[in-house]
Amino acid sequence: MEVMKTVLECIGCWIVAYYASGIVHEGGHVVAGLAQGWKFELLVVGPLKLYRRKDGKVRLGIEKNILLWCGIGGAAPAERSEANLKKFARTLLAGPAASILFGMLCGISLFWGVTVFRAMMTFIPIGMGIFCLNPKAKTGILYSDGGRFLRIVKGGKTAAEEKAIFEAAFLEKMDPNGSYDEQGILVMTSSDDVSFQFLGHYYAWLNAKKNHNEEEMKIRIHNMEQIKKDVPKAVADMCVMED
After folding, report:
1. Sign (positive or negative) of CA dihedral 58, 66, 62, 127
2. How many structural domains does the chain have?
3. Is residue 161 part of a domain?
4. Does residue 196 lie within any of the structural domains?
5. pTM of this prediction?
6. Left, alpha or beta for 113 (phi > 0: left; psi -120 to 50: alpha)?
7. 122 with 107: CB under 8 angstroms?
8. Residue 43 belongs to a domain
9. Does residue 85 sit within a domain?
10. Which of 113, 174, 204, 234 has the fewest CB atoms inside 10 Å of its own CB, making it the most exposed?
């Protein structure tokens, strides 16, 4: 019984510590965006999400996409601007920074005695922050926070890819009646990353659909089918194609 009690206690402490760490990490991204004049859009940790509906109201709900349960949070710019990418780079670092700072603050409690809960509240957020700074880490199509930051500041092709993905993700917020940038689509379809290629063809398909260009739609569908087997299912599932 004592062993079972200890195991359950550890599991409970881990859940609380992980959830708290996730909220702090994603909240760091959100706060950094808000501080730069952007508007809150989404915060997901586990199955719960706080999100802005199309009518502008913020609501609490259940996230159905299990792949997002690891955490996602962000704010969106109100309009297209050359400054957006630099602002986005700063929001990327805000998450890991918030995690590490939170863990260090929780670590002060260890001076009053080491417990499982105090240890987890210290090391889980610090570990989360360090992992998210790892430039080689990647989930689905997206690189880690640190990886995306380095790709942006490096400039050139990688920065162009990050800009294209960023602007495509927030197009509806920045320009509800706009189309996906053709140059951005070209950048994605010529990427070395097959997931970026797939998304580029998908956004081109959306443009063609909007313009009622059936021939172009067929070409893009063909291109997507050619590489779909090499694309993570999570990426393919993002691309909903309806007539």
Report:
1. negative
2. 1
3. no
4. no
5. 0.85
6. left
7. yes
8. yes
9. yes
10. 113
Range of the domain at 126: 2-133
Rounded percentage of the chain residues whose pLDDT exceeds 70? 98
Give the rounded distance of the alpha carbon of 166 from its chain centre: 10
pLDDT tens for each residue of 22-61: 999 999 999 999 999 998 888 888 888 888 887 778 888 8
For 77, the token pair is 């710019």
For residue 18 the two structure tokens come to 């992980």
